[in-house]
Structures are given as C-alpha cells and as structure tokens.
Amino acid sequence: MKNFSRFNFNSKYLLLILALLFFFLPTFVNSPYLIRVIEMIAIFSLLGLGLNFLFGYTGQISIGHSAFYALGAYTSAILETKFAVPFYIAWIVAIVLTGLIAYLVSFPILKLKGHYLAMATLAFVLIVETILGQWIPVTGGHDGITVLTVSLLGPWIAQNLYYFIIGSTIIAIWMLMNISKSSIGRSHQALRDDEDGAESLGIPVKKYKVNAFVFSAMLAAVAGIWYAHLSMVITPEVFSAGVSIQLLMMVVVGGMGSNLGAILGAIFIIVLPEFLYDFQDASMFIYGSIVLVILLFFPGGLAGIFKKVSKFLFHRKKYSGKESEVDVQNAS
Amino acid sequence: MLKVKNVSAGYDGIDVLHEVSLNVNEGEIVSLVGLNGAGKSTLLKTISGILPAKKGDIYFDDQKVTNHSTDSLVKKGMVHVPESRFLFPALSVKENLLLGTAAKDNKFRKLKSDELFNFVFDLFPVLKERSSQRAGTLSGGEQQMLAIGRGLMSNPKLLLLDEPSLGIAPILVEKIFESLLMLNKEGITIFLVEQNVSISLDISHHAYVLDLGKVIMSGTGKEVLNNPQTQEVYLGGF
Amino acid sequence: NSSSTQGSSGADDPIKVGYIGALSGGSSTMGVPGKNGIQLAVDEINADGGINGRQIELIAADDKADPATSATQAQKLINEDEVVAILGGPNSGTVKANSEVIAQYGVPELITIAMNDTLIDPNSATFPTTFRMTEDNSYDIRALAEFLIGEGHQNIGVIADNTAYGQSGTESIKKILEEKGLNVEIAVDHPVGAKDLTAQTLKLREANVDAVYVFSLGPEGALFMKTLKQIDWKVPVVGGRGLNMKAFVDLAGDAADGMILPTVINPNKPEAKEFIEKYDEKYNDDPTHVYSSLGYDSMYLLAAALKKSDGEGGDALIEALESLKDIPTVTGGMDHTASFTDDKHNAVNENYIIFNQVKNGAFEFYTDEVESGWE
Amino acid sequence: MLLEVKGLTKRFGGLVAVNQVGFSVEEGKITALIGPNGAGKTTLFNCISGFYQPNEGEVLLNNSNIIGQPAHKILQKGLARTFQLVRNFEGMTILENIMTAAHVHSGQNFLNSLLFLPSVKKSEKELKEKANDILKFLNLAHVADKYPNEISYGQKRLVEIGKVLATDAKLLLMDEPAAGLNDSETRTLVDTMREIQKTGKSILIVEHNMKFIMELVQKIVVLDFGQKIAEGTPEEIRNNEKVIKAYLGGGKVNA
Amino acid sequence: MDVYGQLLIAGISTGSIYGLIALAFLIIYNSTQIVNFAQGEMVMVGAMMTFFGLSFHSFSYLSTFFIVIGSMIVIAFIFQHVLVKPLQKQGASMFSIIIGTIALGIVLSEGMGLWLGKQQYGVPPIIPNNPISLGNITILPQNLLIIIISWSLVISIWYFFNRTMTGLSLRAVSISTEGAQVSGIKISRMLAIGFTLSAVVSGIGGLLIAPVVGASPYLGLSIAVKGFAAAILGGMGNIYAGMIGGIIIGISESFFSFYIPSYAEAITFTIMLFMLVVKPTGLFPEHS
Ligand SMILES: Nc1ncnc2c1ncn2[C@@H]1O[C@H](COP(=O)(O)OP(=O)(O)OP(=O)(O)O)[C@@H](O)[C@H]1O
Ligand SMILES: Nc1ncnc2c1ncn2[C@@H]1O[C@H](COP(=O)(O)OP(=O)(O)OP(=O)(O)O)[C@@H](O)[C@H]1O
Ligand SMILES: CC(C)C[C@H](N)C(=O)O
Ligand SMILES: [Mg+2]
Ligand SMILES: [Mg+2]
C-alpha cells in the first residue's frame, strides 16, 4: 500500500559498509563537532528505529517515547553518580528497568487505541516529566544531574564513547532489519492493519504489542544512556513531551514503516537546523515549511526519495523501462 | 435514460473497462452479468462518478454527465447501492436512512422523517425494529437491506444495484426481487448487477454480459439466460 | 587541550565571538533582545576601530531553549567557527548544558542573562571558565530580603513557576530569607502557561503570610496579581526579575499596582538613557530593556578583555577577564562598575539592583538606594 | 466429536441473538449452519471462535471447553474462522497475507527473529513454499504479488479461504464463502471445498446459497431468531416445513 | 468553606476554556476524523489577532472580533486546501495527517512570531474587570464571560450536529467518505463547514483567553494538550463530551493545586489515565 513505504536496507552488505565507514570515520576526520553531530544522529536513530517499529510497523502511536529516553538516561546517571554503581551494571539496570516499566505501563495503556492511546502516552510523558522536575532529592529537579563521564567511565571509554554509540545503533538496525524480513515482522504489520483479523489467525495481538512497546522502550533507554554520558548534564527539558512530538515527526518525515527512514529522519532533524542558522529568526518557520513540503510532495518521506533516487541511479534500465510502460498505458 | 458510450476506466494506470457501451431505457430493468473480476462493479462506480472515466461518455436523461460528482448525480436522481455497502457503522439505522435524503435539500433543516421511511420499513420490517441499533452491529443481511433502503430514501429515478442479494436469505431474496419489480412498475429504472443470474435475468427486460472489461453479448433477459454459452459459464454445474 | 589552537590567526581576520541563546520559542522574548544588545555593542565597537584594529564578528546560534541543541551548538562554535569566546543566553538549563562542553576546550563563556545560582563556580572542575555579566538569583533576593525587613514583614509566602528559574529561585529565597531571620511560611508552585492560580493564591492566604514573593515570569505573575484582586486580599507583593516584561503590566492592569520588583536598568542614569534611545531606534523589541542592556554590557565587558589579550583567546583571554576591573556598565546603579577576579566570576558589584514599582499599569522607577550585594 | 456446542446463549442488551443452541460437528465432515438474516449465525461463530463471550453454555473442542479463551489460543488449538466481510491486511501482498496466516506454527518468535537465526531463515523459506502451494491450489498464483485492494471481490473471498488453510487448523469455520460468486464459480468452490475436506479437515459453513449447501454438506443445522429449529441431512432440511416457512421460501431462488 | 467554593469556580472557569478547545477538536474530528494538533496554534492565532486589533491598531472590540473571525476563516481555508486535501488525495495515513497538522502548527506560530514579534503581549479585558461577589465567593467578569460563551457554543453546536441534516451529514462524512458520496452528500462543502466552524471556535477561544493569559506565538502547545485531554477524557464521538472532560480536568487541577501544587497536573493526568483504562473510549463512548 502506498501509505506505508517499506523500503529497507535490502542488503546486509550496505549495512556492513555503513558500519565500517562510521567506525573509521574518526581516523580520517578530525572534527569533534562533526563527531558530535554523528553521535546525536545515532542517538536519535535509536529512538527513531524503536518508535518506527512501534508506530510504523505495529501501528501503536506513542507521544510519550521521550519518557523512556529519560528513564534510560536518569537511571544510569542516578546509579552512577548517587550510588557509585559501576557503569556497566548501571547501564544494564537502566535498560532492564526501562523495559520493566514499559512492560507494566503497556498493560493498561495498550488496551487503548488510536487517539486515546496517543493521549495516554502523552499523559505518561507529562507525568514522568513532572516527577523528574519535582523529585529533587533523587533527580536534582530542574537543575538536573551532572554526569562526570570521564571519571565515571574511565578516560579510555569516555574517549571512545563514539564507537559504543555507533556500534549499538548498527546492531539495532541489524536487528530490526531481521525482524522486518521475518514472519514476526509481517505479523506486527498484520495487527496494524486489522487486529481482529490477526487475532483470528492465531497471532497473540496483545503480546506482540507489548513486545514491540517494550523493545522500543529499551532502545530508547540505550539512547538515553548515551545522551547522559555524551552531554554530561541531563535536565527534564531534554526529555519533554515536545521531544516526543519531534520524534514522531522525525519518523513520519523519514518515511513511516521504514528503518532507513528512521535514520534519514534523524539526520534531517539534527542536521537541517544546522543549515538554517543563516535564517536566524526565520529558521523554525523554514523548518516547519520544509516538513510540510516533504509530507505534501513526498508521501514516502525521505526514504521514498532515497529509494527513488537510488533506483534511478542503480537500476536505470529497469526503472526507465517500467516508467515508459506506465506512460504508454496512461496515453492510451 | 442512461447511455454509456465507449467508456474506458480503471485503477492506477491499469484499465479494467475497455470501450464499454450500453443503454438503459427508461422504465426498464437491465442486468449486467459477468465473472468475478470482469469489471461490473467498476462500471457501476464509473457511471455514478465514484471512479473517473478515462475515455468515452456517459449520458443521463440525455445530459452528458461524464465525471460529474456523485452528489450531483444523486441530486439528479441516480443512486448507486454499492457492493461494499458503505454504510455508516457508527450511526443508527434511522440516521443511515435519513442520510439517504441528504441530497434532496441540504439546508440547515431540522431532522424529521417522512413517508419514505414507511416505504422502506414496509419492505424491510426488521429495519424498523432495529431503527436505533448501530448499523455496524447489524447482521450481514440486515446491512444489505439497510444499504438498499438508504438508496431508496432519495426517491431515485435510476437505481444502480450491485449484487443486492449478497448475503440475503433465500426467502428474502425472493421478496427483494418482487419489490424490485414493484419499484419498477412505479417507474423506477433499475440497472442491476447480480450473480444470481437465474432470478435476475428472469425479471430483466434487457441484459448485457461483460467479460474482461468488454461487452461480449447483449439481448433481452430471456435471450441471455437461455443462451447456451451463458448456461455453461454462469449456470454450469447446477 | 586544544586551547592553544583557538583564536589568534591573521592580524586582519575578524575576531569571532559566539552567542548561544533562544532565538525561537517562548524564551526568545529574552534571547532575541539579548542578541540584539550584543550586536549593537559589536557595531559600535567595530565602528570605533574594533579590538586593536581587528573587527569583531558575532556568530549567533539558536538553541531553542533546548539543552541538547545548546551543547551541540557550543561544539560547533568552538570547532567549526573557532570563536574565541561564547556569550551565554537567557536559560539557565541550556547554559548549564553548554558550559560543560565549552569548558572542556578552555574557552571562556560569559553568561548574559541566565541567573541560576549554580551556574558560576570558578573553582569547580567542570566549568572553571564560565563568567557572568548579570548577578545570580541570590543577589536579587538579598536585596529584596532587606527591603522586606525594612517594611517590617516577617512571614513570607513564595509563589514560583516550576521551571529551573522558579525552582532554584524558591530554594534560594528559602535559604536567604531564613538566614536573614525572616520566615518562609509557605512556597507554592505552578506550571508555565497556567490559566488559573486561584488554588495557589488561596493557599498563600490560608497560610496568613505578611507578604508574597513572586518568582514567576510575566503572564503567570500577572494572573497571580489579578487573582489577589479578585479574592480581595491586599497583601504586599515583591517579585523576581522574570516579571520585567511588558506583558506583565499589560495583563495585570491596575492589579499589580504597588508591587516592588528588581530591575537592572535605571532610567535616570545618563548612560542607560542613551542606550535605551539607541536600542529603540534600531530594534525596539525590548520594552523593559533588561535583556538587551545585559547583552550590550556583556559584549563591552568581553571587548575590554579582548583588548587586553589582544584578540587572543584561551588562557590569555581568561586571564584578561579575571583582571577586568571597574568597567562601567549601562545596567546597574548610578555609577556601577563591573569587575572579575580569579575567584569572582560574577561581574557585578554592590549598587547594581534598582527597584521598580508598578503604578497605573507601568513600571516606574522606585529607588536605586538598594542595600544588596554579596554576603 | 470434534466440536460440540451446548446450551449456548448470547445476549445484546435485551436482544437474545443466540438462545440455548446446541449441536455438534463430526470429524472429517462438512456441516452447514443456515437461517434467516439476523438469526444469530455470525454471532454463534463469534462465540465459538473466541471473539464474543457467550452469556451461557459450553463449546467443546476435542472435548475440552474453550469458552473464555482468547481467539488466538483457540486457533492454536485447531479452530480457524473466516469473516463474513472480507478482511485482509491491506499493507501486504496476497502472498504475504497467506504467509502471515501460516505464522503461528512457524516456530519464529521475537528473539530468534531479532537475531535471524538459521532456523528463522529456514522457516521463511518453508512459509513461502507453503503459501505458494495454497495460492496455486486456489488458482490465485497470478495475484500473489498484488495488494488486497487490487483484486476483485471474488478473489478476496478465496484469499480468506487461503488464510484459514494456511493456519493448519483442523476445523474451519467459514462465514458465507460463496457470497458474491456466480453459479459456475460456486461450482468450482464446491470442488475446492471437497478437496479441502479430503485433506482431513472438518468444516462448518454459514451460507445462504442453497445450491452450494445442498450439494456440499453432510449435515445442516438451522437457526431462527437465535434458536435451533431443525437439524438433519440436506434432504430432510429441504423438506422441513418449518425451514421452508422461515427460510427457504417458495423455492424459486433455489431452482 | 468559601475556599472550596472559590476553588470550584476557578476549576469551572479554566475547565470551560479547556472545554472550548476540546469543542474545536471535536468539531474537526466529528466531521473529518482528523485530530488537529494545530488546534492550539489556531487558538494562538485568535489571541494574537485580538492583540493585533486591540493593542496594535486600537480598534474597537467589534472590529477586532471581525478581524479574528476573518483570519480564522482564512486559516480554515489554508488548513483544508493546502494541507488536508492534498494529503488525503495522495492517500496519506492518519498519522501523516497528524504530523502535517503539527508542522502547520509550527509554521503558524513561527510565522506569527515573525510578523508580530515573539513577545508575550498583554491584552486588555473585554469588560471592566472588577470582581463580582456571590456571597463569599468572587469571580472575575472575564471568567464569567468565558463560561457563558463556551457553554452556549457547546450547546448550540451540539444541537447543530445532532439535530440538523447538515450536522448529521458532517458526522456521516467523518465516518465514511464513500458512504457519504453515494448518499449524495457534497463532501467538500461539508469539510469546509467543519474546518471553518472549528477554526472559528478556536478563534473565539483565543479572543476570550487573551485577556486572561496574554497573547504569544507560543501559547498553543500547553493549551492544546489540555484541550486534547479534555476531548479524550470526555470521548471523541460526542460534541458535548469535551466540555465535561474539561470541567473534570479543571476542577481536579484546581483542587489538587490547593493541596499539592507541584504534582497537581501529574495527578490530574494520572486520574485521566485511570479513567481511560476503565473506559477506553472516554466517559461518553464514541457511539452510545
Ligand atoms: N453488537 C450487537 N449489538 C446489538 N445487536 C447485535 C449486535 N451484533 C448482532 N446483533 C444482532 O443480533 C442478531 C444476530 O446477528 P448475526 O450477525 O449473528 O446474524 P446472522 O445470522 O449472521 O445473519 P446474516 O445471515 O444476515 O449475516 C441480528 O439481528 C443483529 O442485529
Ligand atoms: N481499487 C482497485 N485497485 C486496483 N485494481 C482494482 C481495484 N478494484 C478492482 N480492481 C481490479 O479490477 C478488476 C475488476 O474488478 P470489479 O470489482 O469491477 O469486478 P466485478 O466484475 O465486480 O467482480 P465481482 O463479481 O467479483 O464483484 C479486477 O481484476 C480487480 O482486480
Ligand atoms: C528571568 C530570567 C532573567 C532568568 C532566566 N530565565 C534563567 O533561567 O535564569
Ligand atoms: Mg463486483
Ligand atoms: Mg452473518
């Protein structure tokens, strides 16, 4: 169907090349700024991939994804800084705890559908945001928590955090790629299209929804951990409901239902503003307009454009052949 | 009353109908038969303006109405009861029926029922019983009755019916066809797509056979029904 | 580690200075005038021959009041644009996020507007190179505490918004007022964009306080004043810096009359008057001139240090900043001057705060005889 | 007995849609459920397949009560159903639709799919083969790569059948599989159903097409106003006065 | 005792604002199935145009009212013809349309900010704002006005949707466009009515709240969240439900703000979550 573009990395080789490229990038480019931008893209890709799986694949809307992003970041930061827990344990606890909370929340929440689900997830992030802002002894309130990355992780890991971030993102892409070409992936799409229909074919709809919810929350937790250690200070604003809305926008602009789209969306949302500085006051206005243009003229999102371009470049013959076929039909 | 001239139409660049021509004269019942996928529903959708015609022309009451909007055609008296019914599942039976009158005058008028209700309720008493039930919870057959009932509410001149017997119990199918005859006698022209050819051709003045988007045969209802080819393809085996 | 590579290039190249603040979103009410004030100063300095002959180029980055964006922008200004110094914006939260990044590179940051108490600590390991033009919340609060004592109030109630500004303000108010022997009977908060503050107001009234300290921004502050009027509770009110918005008096109408609140610009001061005229002629987007004047002063302060370091960044500039002494400012009392030392990174000195009083729906000069300052 | 329904009742507010109905389906046989519109046939199907909770009664599948179990569990126990109105997964091709229907017994789960273990790869291949076989069997091979909204109504009905076949269920509940088909197509469907029966499956059908029913089934249960009014062989039912009066009518339709 | 009465009055008047925004959500939803995430920005446009008329140009209230209504009609037109129609034409999913409304919201607030400035502006009250007392309880005339106008709007629009042919047709279009088509309903006209009505209600909302909370290009989000919550809590299928949802949220916020202000909003949202879990399609289910 046209609504959901399902363009994906169709080869593991492409992924491998990407992985190698990003692993060796720092040896060629010596720009901390560029590295930071790539790190932020990777973090948002993790968020986008998870959300896309939940939303583009399973059809469960969430306007509360930044709550899980926050849970990952805060849990690891609190454990490391307030309880002196070694970072590797803190990270595992953060991911597992976020998954657990997602699991508990998903039971009542996933009973809801469509707009009701949207509101419930929005309420969830607003509640989490309030707690982060008000529970001062634990979360530091709006002053947040300062994470002294170097002393917590040791200089070597702190210096090479980039590889952890990129590595985990590549693994996440690989996993989702696997899902999307397996029967599990199709079953998730099936319940997106018709819940009763899926249920009648033996697909445990509820369980699959919960799986997707928990998995995407855990990916968000990983993103949160990276963000906390990269930025070294976390405050509730970083994880606000507004960020959740941005994430949703990112997935749709990238191309709903497409893993590639989630990544292109992340690039878009991080990089575009960098180009808009020259417009100063008008930058957000232009940003919003560009999003509108993409939605209006490129239904498949950025992934759709990407697909078209690459089809044009690499399969020129086949493509133009098909095109002319259609033309003849139209003319007749 | 209805003239279809060399109409081609289809979906997304793929033509389903190829230069179809046919006529429905005022006061007649005309049937269209054909195998699954022949393009019968596509033709009805093209006539009623749901689907654009890519080529050819459609005349209604000697007026060219090719690609006119569905609502303007309903206003002119052409009503389509589609195969997929397109009811309003969340609205009550009564509201569904009322909406059949939407085209008549769309002022900010207050809702009220009129004698048309009684006509439909006489035809399908069960709808009266269920008048405040949500259409979405009706049984399959009840929904079909509601779709036909809604079509009748606008007091049409020409009724395009796509498989009215779909999902209807035998005893009621008889009743529906009797009513069609009655409606026809009252002056409503009917263009009918029906799989149950033995009964539909039986009451039709005229019939066309569609195959792969082309009209391959036409004649009076009886002629088409008794044609050996029809017998084999459409009645084969029973 | 890379501070030696920063700054000084060719003698004719402009000296690049960055500004990170909210240029869009709600906080742009402060961030944009801040930037314009800086630009006004830059234009004047350049017209005047620049920094020892070199021009200043201002590169402004929009952080949308988002901490994550702010940190990335800091990275960009330092690594790509190679600025020698960064002027920090109006939101404490984003300044906090970017100053950690900036400090890593040994680049000095001079905060223009943000007031959180914890932003400045010359002896901290994480942001030893952060400076601030304006003073912190505590400075304002001390001044108002003295005022409250002078008026004979004892039991004080606090209402604040639940942002970084309001929350840290409340903490500081509690601490300072108690220190000064006053009693903070109750503190309530409310979300930004609240449409109604009846509950909070009633709660303060139930607590029987002698005076109320409002630490919210303009619109909610006005809502509070209107609610006071509605329930007919005539209690003396003092406010925080965030109320210095035209929206506050516009919305409050006569409900805010009599209220005392601190500001940084004294209309009777010739330098301030001149600034106001120049600024309004060019931009006219900051009716209270609080944020634009702070930006303006910040840039002059930085320029003074750059002259000393001869356009050099890094340690040289930090040293230069730390040795600034008695630089005149358009903000502050009649003859206020600013200075830094190696353990005083807040620029202002005694005699900085001015009190306004709201009268007939406008801010009016009340007094610059304000006892205040550092402990 | 493969399926036994006992004293089943389902109410919607004041309306008793199914009223104390009991009947059984024998292994390997095709049984029909007929009755006027609104008699409660679809409601009964929904109760048996786990989509509705009946107010009273039991449903025994292989002698164990399945009431209260979720629909997917009931399918895993071997009972599959089609819907009266076709419902396909719009975002997938017909082939993928069928593959999805075969998913339950594929052995794939979230974890092994995440890692795409060799077993998953193998199962994917098997699913595809199985789906292709089913499409061939139903004469739908040529629409394998089309999307559901691109095929005709009759084809959609066949896809519905394809899906329940793919689930490997032993007992298939079909709601009006012949609706919208013409006589010759119905004839073909009869053959198809017999083929299905030969593979050892049992079928319970709701259908208004009497030619189809009389030709195909071994036993008929008749509902009217939610109650069972008759049960017997096609021959018995055809001549049952009550059934003629309530349902079959004058016989013109069933000529 | 007067404390509770006062809290109740406060809850009802903020609740009425939420209810009014919810009404605007519900009008669009019940005529197009679209949840308009730019609803808050539409209210913002109403508020900013009020400021524009009253403070910028010192027009009278009446002319300002017409300026607001006029600009809302323009926005409704843009919304329908530039955003929704093209998206629907390309067969975009519900989600894409929601994101489209979010993007439109950004464009509206940023565009407004570029035009009239990104400040927060104060707007004078419509009627002299001296508190009226009812026994021990007092209320501001502006709040009373909000309550009266929003309730009358809800009642009249409910009547329109449920008791007139056009209203029924609007609901029909939202349920099934195909069904509406074959019933002879002129869909584009219905959409235009739905969009305009919703935009006008939002504009009136902006006009009413501007004197209370001021006008700023960025006031949309917070107000939309509460309005959306009110609509969801009430149930999206009923025009009046949003007002009741709004009142519940308003009163809950008011009372919890008294006892535990820091968590009042969070508690209100938690209560809403619980209510949703019990009644997954709102207090007044979509179709009773
Ligand atoms: N959710 C519901 N609420 C109220 N009434 C309902 C509901 N579902 C079904 N009904 C009613 O129950 C009766 C039985 O419906 P059911 O769908 O089982 O009939 P059926 O025998 O399948 O008829 P058909 O042959 O027309 O499909 C119908 O009259 C229907 O209107
Ligand atoms: N929305 C659509 N998009 C693309 N192709 C379609 C669409 N609808 C129908 N078709 C194709 O058009 C052809 C004709 O379909 P149509 O529904 O008109 O057939 P029909 O004669 O009514 O068949 P039936 O008896 O099964 O209802 C079919 O081959 C079908 O695959
Ligand atoms: C009100 C402003 C002067 C203070 C600023 N919002 C801060 O965060 O410190
Ligand atoms: Mg058809
Ligand atoms: Mg049925």
From TrEMBL, chain A:
Gene3D superfamilies listed in its UniProt record: ABC transporter involved in vitamin B12 uptake, BtuC
This protein's UniProt keywords: Cell membrane, Membrane, Transmembrane, Transmembrane helix
Pfam family, one: BPD_transp_2
GO cellular component terms given for this protein: plasma membrane
GO molecular function, one term: branched-chain amino acid transmembrane transporter activity
Principal location: membrane
Membrane topology: Multi-pass membrane protein
InterPro entries: ABC_BtuC-like (IPR037294), ABC_transp_permease (IPR001851), LivM-like (IPR043428)
Compartmental location: Cell membrane
Signal peptide: none
Coiled coil regions in record: none
Transmembrane segments: 12-29, 35-55, 85-105, 117-136, 156-177, 210-228, 248-272, 284-306
Name listed for the protein in its UniProt record: Branched-chain amino acid transport system permease protein
Organism the protein comes from: Salirhabdus euzebyi
UniProtKB/TrEMBL annotation, chain B:
GO molecular function, one term: ATP binding
A Gene Ontology BP annotation from the UniProt entry: L-amino acid transport
Ranges for domain ABC transporter: 2-237
Name listed for the protein in its UniProt record: Branched-chain amino acid transport system ATP-binding protein
Domain of life of the organism encoding this protein: Bacteria
Family: Belongs to the ABC transporter superfamily.
Entry-linked PROSITE patterns: ABC_TRANSPORTER_1, ABC_TRANSPORTER_2
Pfam families for this protein: ABC_tran
Keywords: Amino-acid transport, ATP-binding, Nucleotide-binding, Transport
PANTHER family to which the protein is assigned, alphabetical: HIGH-AFFINITY BRANCHED-CHAIN AMINO ACID TRANSPORT ATP-BINDING PROTEIN LIVF
Keyword DNA damage applies: no
UniProtKB/TrEMBL annotation, chain D:
Record GO terms (molecular function): ATP binding; ATP hydrolysis activity
Domain ABC transporter, first and last residues per copy: 3-250
Keyword annotations: ATP-binding, Nucleotide-binding, Transport
Keyword Nucleotide-binding found: yes
Entries under InterPro entries matching the protein: AAA+_ATPase, ABC_AA/LPS_Transport, ABC_transporter-like_ATP-bd, ABC_transporter-like_CS, BCA_ABC_TP_C, P-loop_NTPase
Domain of life: Bacteria
Pfam families noted in UniProt: ABC_tran, BCA_ABC_TP_C
An example Gene Ontology CC term for this record: plasma membrane
Official protein name in the record: Branched-chain amino acid transport system ATP-binding protein
Organism field: Salirhabdus euzebyi
TrEMBL record, chain E:
Matches recorded under InterPro entries: ABC_transp_permease, BCAA_transport_permease
Matches recorded under Pfam families: BPD_transp_2 (PF02653)
Main location: membrane
Name the UniProt record assigns to this protein: Branched-chain amino acid transport system permease protein
This protein's UniProt keywords: Amino-acid transport, Cell membrane, Membrane, Transmembrane, Transmembrane helix, Transport
Topological relation to the membrane, as annotated: Multi-pass membrane protein
GO MF term list: transmembrane transporter activity
Residue stretches spanning the membrane: 6-29, 65-83, 95-117, 137-161, 191-215, 227-251, 258-278
Native organism: Salirhabdus euzebyi
One biological process term in Gene Ontology: amino acid transport
One of the record's GO cellular component terms: plasma membrane
Subcellular location: Cell membrane
Family, similarity comment: Belongs to the binding-protein-dependent transport system permease family. LivHM subfamily.
